[in-house]
Specification:
about 260 residues, Helix Hairpins, about 0% strand, PspA_VIPP1, Phage-shock protein, coiled coil
Length: about 260
């Protein structure tokens, strides 16, 4: 079961990888950062509003405190010490409230400054992320386009490779046929194969003439060589004359053939 679960998670992860678009993920992250920045800004606004309310309360209490102090002076001037004491007692109570509100005001002011600084830093990070996001998206789009172009060229290359193989096969077959034709011509010329077409065959008269001519030449050359070996010019001359006479003599059958011609 564990193995099946692992296989399922692996396949699901692979499917998610294929379905995921990094540009959409970056836009989603940027949107979340904007939402967080908006929350921080609302927090700053809330703290600032609370600080402003405290300032209004402080101003109001300080006004009441000043009024009670003035009333105490007037009562004391009129000889009403009891009224002056009451006014000063109320002023003292207001002063305690003013002190408490001033502490709260300082605390809120400090929080407001911290949140404002955090909002500024977060704004800078969001701006930097936005710039980086757009750069990554542009790079990814360019890489995707390059990949598609490369894949297209790859398909064209495969087709051109098939064409090249077809041309190579045609050239190989042509060369094979040329070599076969040349070999046949050589065999026909050497007599190893009979030319049954009759175009290259010799008649019997020409064959007999070639045989006699070749034989007389051999005999003549043989007699000449014998005469040279004998060392006598008369012998050499005799050999030449004898060869000529031998070449002139022909068999009765050959003479009969020529008579018919």
């Amino acid at each position: 079961m564990k193995r099946m679960g692992m296989i399922f998670r692996a396949k699901a992860n692979k499917a998610l990888d294929r379905a995921e678009d990094p540009r959409e993920t970056l836009d989603y992250s940027y949107q979340k950062q904007l939402e967080l920045l908006q929350k921080v800004r609302r927090g700053v606004a809330d703290v600032a509003t609370s600080r402003k309310r405290l300032e209004l309360q402080l101003n109001q209490l300080q006004g009441q405190s000043a009024k009670l102090e003035d009333q105490g002076r007037k009562a004391l001037a009129l000889g009403r010490e009891d009224l002056a004491r009451e006014a000063l007692s109320r002023r003292a109570s207001l002063q305690q409230q003013v002190s408490d509100l001033e502490v709260q005001h300082q605390t809120l002011q400090g929080e407001e400054e911290k949140l404002t600084l955090a909002a500024q830093r977060l704004q800078a990070k969001v701006d930097a992320f936005r710039t980086k996001k757009e750069t990554i998206k542009a790079t990814y789009t360019a890489a995707q386009a390059q990949t598609r172009i490369a894949e297209s060229f790859s398909g064209i290359s495969e087709e051109m490779s098939d064409v090249g193989l077809a041309i190579q096969r045609a050239e190989d077959k042509t060369a094979q046929l040329q070599a076969r034709a040349g070999a046949i011509d050589e065999l026909l010329a050497s007599g190893a194969l009979d030319d049954r077409s009759g175009l290259g065959s010799k008649d019997d008269i020409q064959a007999e003439l070639d045989r006699l001519s070749g034989g007389s030449d051999v005999e003549l050359e043989l007699q000449r060589m014998k005469a040279e070996l004998a060392g006598g010019p008369s012998a050499q001359q005799q050999a030449i004359e004898g060869g000529a006479q031998g070449g002139a003599q022909q068999s009765p059958q050959t003479q009969h053939r020529f008579d018919k011609q």
